[in-house]
Amino acid sequence: MTTGLLGVTGTPGTGKKTLSPLVASRLSYSLLDLNSAVTRVSRSKPGTTLEVDTVRLRKRLLTTGASNRVIFGHLLPDVFRARELDFVAVLRCEPSILKKRLVARGYSGPKVIANIEAELIGLVLDASIRSFGKSVVHEYDSTKAEPARLARIITSDYTRGVKAEDGWIDWTDRYTSSARLRSLFSLGSTEPAST
Q1: In the structure, what pLDDT confidence band is assigned to residue 193 with cuts at 50, 70 and 90?
Q2: What own/partner pairs with CB < 8 Å and gap ≥ 24 does 175-178 have?
Q3: Is 192 domain-assigned?
Q4: Spatial strand order in the sheet of 69-72
Q5: Residue 90: helix, strand or coil by DSSP?
Q6: Which comes out higher in pLDDT, residue 146 or 165?
Q7: Cβ contact 97:192 at 8 Å
Q8: What pTM, to 2 d.p., does this model score?
Q9: Do 49 and 33 contact (CB within 8 A), yes or no?
Q10: Domain of 69?
């Protein structure tokens, strides 16, 4: 079943917000930022974190019946299910580079640590495979990739119906010593671990 829906997801800071409009433009698809949709259907109390009502968000998005759309956000695997998206691009970023990006954005220390840990262990990739199945999940390293070039690759893979490959990115191979792990999770340093 073809839905005309392409999802882009990944840990915060991997490039979804930059890349997704480029992909949508290349496909002449409309664009939906899940974070924008979240603020319309979620609740939060002053001084607390936003509680996302994924069930309500899911209902709202599925009733629109839209196709030919690029949907992006780290909550993609929490909102959509198998056969609802034709193709899911999971953006990945080397954890030490991701750390620099998140610090530059002004993320709090605990939020930086939580996100680099999620990227290190492939949390969003795992959630995507569980929600959508291996056949539609495609992984892209955005660490050093030029966004326009990566958008061309994703668009090409999507339009040609390229099959997903096994052999997922494993950042843990780069952090085999306790010193490298300590450096990664130390907020005093945003220097990349040497390879």
Answers
A1: very low
A2: 175/95, 175/120
A3: no
A4: 30-33, 69-72, 5-10, 87-92, 137-141
A5: strand
A6: 146
A7: yes
A8: 0.86
A9: no
A10: 5-185
Q: What are phi and psi of 87, to 5 degrees?
A: -155, 135
| Residue 164 buriedness (CB in 10 A; 0-12 / 13-18 / 19+) | middle
Residue 49: inside a domain: yes
Counting the structural domains of the chain, the total is 1
Q: Is residue 102 part of a domain?
A: yes
CA 159 – CA 9 distance, rounded (Å)? 18
Q: Tell me, yes or no, whether 190 lies in a domain.
A: no
Residue type, position 118, single letter: A
The average pLDDT across 38-61 equals 63
CATH number at residue 97: 3.40.50.300
N-term to C-term CA, the chain: 43
Residue 105 token pair: 């954005």
The per-residue pLDDT for range 73-100, each reduced to its tens digit, is 999 999 988 888 999 999 999 999 999 9
Are 109 and 84 in contact by the 8 Å Cβ rule? The answer is: no
Residue with tokens 């490298």: 180
Question: Which of 147, 127, 153 has the alpha carbon at shortest distance from 20?
Answer: 147
The one-letter code for the residue type at 128 is: S
